[in-house]
Amino acid sequence: MAPRNFFILKSDGRKVKFNPNKILSTCMRAGASRKTAQRILKKVRSNVYRDMGTSDIYKLVLQAISKEKDGVGLHQRYQLKEAIMRLGPAGFAFENYIADLLPYYDLQVSGIRVKIKGKCALHEIDLIGLSSSKQFMIECKHNSYRGTYIGLKVALYTHARFLDLSPRFSGEMIFCNSKISENAKKYSNCIGQQVFSWRYPSEKSLEKIIEENKLYPITILNLTSKELGIFYGIDLMIAKDLLDFDAVKLSEKTGIGTTRIHNLQMMVEKTTAIVSMISNILHCSLVIFYDDFLPPVFNLL
Q1: CB of 128 within 8 A of CB of 175?
Q2: pLDDT of 129-157, one tens digit each?
Q3: Distance between CA 250 and CA 258 in Å, rounded?
Q4: pTM surpassing 0.90?
Q5: d(CA 208, CA 212)
Q6: How far apart are alpha carbons 6 and 17 in whole angstroms?
Q7: Please, what is the angle between helix 54-66 and helix 34-45, to 10°?
Q8: 8 A C-beta contact, residue 57 and residue 281
Q9: Where are the alpha helices (DSSP H) in the chain?
């Protein structure tokens, strides 16, 4: 008998379903062996129920994955997308983080939060990117909640600012940590506006560049608010950059104890592989289905 569709609730209240045939292949594409993928599914499936919220399922998934790595015991907060959401909303952490990512888009940062007078108005530009002799106006949009989209309005007002500042800039870009609507995509493509968002474009999407180059934000670590503020203050936005410092010197610079710095550095080394696996497995749309004969399994989001 063919499996019945089984609906789950996304964080925005929508019910979604998916083709159940891609379960194990999705896990294995993420880097899990067949045995590992089967173990993960086995650990989670007995706790999954109809109309279960995605946030609760994330916890089950991440707990199961963390136990596959020699008891490191990472929590669900180490998931990439949620770590990036914690870069806001207060302050300029997301803008500073994107500035560190620009070299991986073949751009150099030539300005951060620069005020420039246009033909009709004064504008504060989040970032200015330089490539050869070309300057790009960059708008950074950060969302702290799941299920949000960058819509046409953002693309429209970014282009309006670009026109007012013409010919100062050769092009315009938008970087955002959420998805972009189809209308915004069509408009951006039509006017030559470049957008780098979650899962778009496929070859240079935000999470793809982060995962390929292990550019996980510092928020992926279990830091206190005070520690986060200290690292933001010295513009240390990428977790693996902790490994570039001598623990004693970084302790002196930040006021954070040497033992704590050393432990954070060890955590960076241990978590990189797990976070890669988590973010890739959770990359696909969540899927749950039930069969009259088989236990429930799901695609990991």
Answers
A1: no
A2: 999 889 999 999 998 877 778 899 999 99
A3: 8
A4: no
A5: 6
A6: 6
A7: 130
A8: no
A9: 23-29, 34-45, 54-66, 80-85, 93-101, 152-165, 182-191, 206-213, 225-233, 247-254, 258-281
